[in-house]
Amino acid sequence: MGTQYRVCIVGCGRMGGTIDEEVRATPHGALPYSHAAGYTAFDRTELVAAADVVEEKAQYVCNKWEIPKYYLDYREMIVQEKPDIVSIATRPGNHAEITEFAAENGVKGIYCDKPLCASMEEADAMVEVCEKYNVKFNLGTQRRYTPGYIKMREILESGELGDRRSIIAYSGGSALWGYTHAADMLLFLASDSPIEYVQGNVDVDDADFEDNRTESDPGIVMGFIRFQNGINGISIPGTAYEFEVNCSEGTVRALNNGLGFYLRKRQGQFNEILEASFPPYERKSGTVGCIEDIVDAIDTDTETQGNIHLAHRSTEMVFAIVDSQRQQGKRVSMPMENRGLYLGRW
């Protein structure tokens, strides 16, 4: 076993340490799911403390996961415990300030739950501080770290389905709290290409944009993303997180929030696009995969799979869709100009 890394968690709510209780009886999301559960399951991380401004929450999570100490102030915790890795599991309004404080106080890795932050000004600041202190960063968009979706991308990049033409996300939800997952998967399935421009439609009162700060986290209705590598990304409302990639020689689709995958390839006597077997893959926790990836990046001084630059890119996609609505559906070129647009009241 390699180096053992000390971990502190900031935020003792659902993703910090209690969501496993909710999803245990469902087929979605291989356990462990919460940050605390993921670190407990991985033998190279040691949970040394957790912090929350609500003492009862901090006590509950520490008792549940046998974390030896809790704090009410995350700054005091980081200074006193000197963790190698910090998990940020709070609402997005303070993600940038926690990231900055952790990086400036010697943290080597950060696992930040989605969404990344509440404005692109904050996202820019997070990139700057992670670059300055060489912090290994992953955003908690767990599909990126799960074997089924990884296999899906491997099929696409192998060339066996030909050229990728479009990626469809059957997803809606609030821009930051829900759509962040869809944005990251659109990016992931497009080989993490930079984005040329975005257009979108958002469920929000246009008068809400008067102060460049929405009162709520507005719902995404539809989105169009043009990637620099020529792939088109499309978001339409759906009943589950499903993603379909249409290629010149076939299609591949993630079904029912990753419970299954469907592959069709051009084949047979008439060269039709017919069902084919999706390759076998391991069912594994995306939370543990995310943590393992951070540890490996620290070990080898390499980038993580969901690093701060990719988190910044998918987040900018979300903000650009909303900003397109603010501009009455106009195309928003990247990088977007309106860095101060703030979503929600956190």
Distance between the termini: 41 Å
Reported for the largest beta sheet, the result is: 9 strands, mixed
The class by helix and strand makeup works out as alpha/beta
CA-based gyration radius: 20 Å
Structure description:
By secondary structure, this protein is α/β, with parallel strands linked by helices. It folds into two domains: 5-140 and 287-304, NAD(P)-binding Rossmann-like Domain (Rossmann fold, 3-Layer(aba) Sandwich), CATH 3.40.50; 143-284 and 312-333, Dihydrodipicolinate Reductase, domain 2 (2-Layer Sandwich). Helices cover 34% and strands 24% of the residues. It has ten helices and 15 strands. It has helices at residues 14-23, 35-41, 55-64, 74-81, 95-104, 120-133, 147-158, 179-189, 286-300, 308-326, and strands at 5-10, 45-51, 70-71, 85-88, 109-112, 136-139, 164-170, 195-203, 219-227, 232-236, 242-247, 250-255, 260-267, 272-276, 332-333. The strands form two sheets. It has a nine-stranded mixed β-sheet. It has a six-stranded parallel β-sheet with strand order 3-2-1-4-5-6, sandwiched between helices. Helix 6 links the parallel strand 5 and strand 6. The protein starts with a strand and ends in a 13-residue tail after the last strand. The relative contact order is 0.16.
